[in-house]
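Sample 3 of the quickstart, ligand 5-O-phosphono-beta-D-ribofuranosylamine:
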Amino acid sequence: VKLGVLVSGNGTNLQAIIDAIESGDLSARVACVISNKGEAFALERARKHGIPAIHLPYKGFDSREAYDAALVKILQEHGVELVILAGFMRILTPVIIDAFHNRIMNIHPALLPAFPGLDAQKQALDYGVKVSGCTVHFVDAGCDTGPIIIQAPVPVENDDTETTLSERIHKEEHQIYPKAIQLFAEGRLSVAGRRVIISS
Ligand code: GRF
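Result:
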């Protein structure tokens, strides 16, 4: 399966995906990496592996829809079949969500539906939960509301800070994101209402 990965930052999830492909655990190819931020280290990671790394700044577009139309064009030009959001800090409009219906995945650093949106780890600490984690889900028109594919729990320790909790969650993210993509690649995911059915 050909992936288009959208990023804004460091790109450790992108790296985990590239590593899983190179080790043979994931049957996929990263066709392109697109960032809205030129300085995103994720672009550097892509270049290092010979993957087309594209900076598409929001500046210069009149609307979010126009920006998303440009995204769709680039993704289609690269033959992308599955779009992977890996720390992409922009909300998508129906322009791209409809073009890639149930073919956009996101990873969120909490056990959804708890703590959607920004600063999920801080939200978890502030609330005082004893367990948090991460969620891979298909993207729909809402914010972190789409059908859930895989979740992994992580304990919250007494002395956790946002940094330590984030690190623990990140380790799990790097495990479950390639797994979710592999399930897609094997044609084992189907969406029935809110539920993702994983066939064996
Ligand atoms: C991750 O915590 C992910 O859950 C969130 O953005 C972060 C991206 O991290 N959506 P990285 O750039 O992959 O290291």
